[in-house]
Design brief:
This protein is an alpha+beta fold. The chain has nine helices and 17 strands.
Length: 349
């Protein structure tokens, strides 16, 4: 039977080859080494050698060599801390930029994005500021050499240091892939109603009334992204979020890349990229307002039946049942003059 230690080692190795990352794809695994517990004491230097076959071709494609830190405690990648040190081909690597930000609400119970350390410049042996021809020439020599990596951890930890060849995914590329996967259909947008989670009664001030009628629920939505402060282009929120307020998809992904965390900016719950969804009701609102800069630059008051009105307009508009998105349009689709027999009707109220 497989021992507990062997089973743990197998689980760790499976993680190294199975894990998906939001901002890069693994092209190939180059090397890995175990550290900690039975492998030494805190402060021990662990060493591994590796080579990068056909690196010139990979470098020309924009691919790079990185180092990841995976801990046995949960078989997950972890952020580099002040207790870690890396040395590549005899040169220490600066790890300070790879630590998650520790400011504000996004640090508490954070879902982090551990950032691998890019060691491409260290194996090239030339400055990052060198011209492209010089760097490509250096890349042509990388595969002919054996490279060394040393790792020190100054606390009691156990896990693996992993060297990978990766292809970076930009925030725009990630946002585009999420949009392709989750963009709602025209029919879903046309029939979408807002999410209403906490209905509230409104006191009309009539103490003599015995009806105690409950007024129609209204809620305010901000059309500006709480992260980028720009007008939302693609409205997103979490699959488990219970609020209607959205944020801009690209703005959120860019923010998470910068801050190394994945938390909803509205409700603060963990929100990894696989849980992002595009909201069809908010989508419909943005299309209906179109080029009305005064409206989209501010807030709207919305109702459970899907009607809404800009809060800053002296002439308020109410959205009726028909919507051009049912004809297959998207944000910004439809006739600019509001015409068209199957279009969205906008009535003055």
């Amino acid at each position: 039977r497989q021992s507990a230690a062997a089973a743990a080692a197998t689980a760790a190795q499976e993680h190294l080859h199975r894990t998906r990352y939001p901002f890069f794809d693994i092209v190939s695994h180059l090397a890995s080494m175990a550290f900690g517990d039975d492998h030494g004491v805190p402060g021990t230097m662990f060493n591994v050698t590796f080579n990068v076959p056909d690196f010139a071709r990979h470098f020309a494609r924009g691919e790079s060599v990185v180092v990841r830190l995976s801990l046995d405690i949960d078989h997950q990648d972890h952020a580099w801390t002040a207790s870690h040190a890396l040395k590549v081909n005899g040169t220490f690597v600066d790890l300070s930029a790879k630590r998650p930000k520790r400011k504000g609400r996004y640090y508490a119970n954070r879902l982090g994005t551990p950032v691998p350390v890019n060691i491409t410049d260290y194996i090239l042996g030339v400055s990052a500021s060198a011209d492209a021809h010089t760097r490509q020439e250096a890349a042509s020599q990388v595969s002919a050499r054996v490279h060394s990596l040393g790792f020190v951890v100054n606390e009691k930890q156990a896990g693996y240091v992993v060297i990978d060849l990766i292809k970076e995914i930009t925030p725009d590329e990630l946002a585009s892939s999420i949009r392709r996967k989750h963009e709602p259909s025209a029919a879903a947008i046309a029939s979408a109603l807002p999410v209403v989670t906490r209905p509230q009664s409104v006191d009309d001030g009539d103490d003599d009334s015995s009806d105690d009628a409950v007024a129609e629920v209204e809620f305010v939505l901000n059309l500006r992204c709480p992260l980028s402060f720009t007008v939302i282009a693609v409205p997103a929120r979490g699959a488990q979020c219970e609020h209607q307020q959205c944020f801009d998809l690209s703005g959120y992904v860019a923010f998470c890349k910068m801050q190394l965390v994945w938390h909803c900016p509205v409700c603060e719950q963990q929100l990894p990229p696989d849980d992002l969804r595009i909201d069809p009701f908010f989508y419909r609102v943005l299309q209906a307002l179109g080029d009305d800069e005064d409206a989209v630059d501010n807030k709207i008051r919305a109702r459970p039946d899907g009607t809404f009105e800009p809060m800053n307009k002296s002439r308020r508009h109410q959205i009726t049942a028909r919507n051009p998105l049912a004809q297959g349009g998207g944000i910004g689709a439809g006739d600019g003059d509001g015409g068209g027999g199957g279009g969205l009707s906008v009535d003055d109220v």
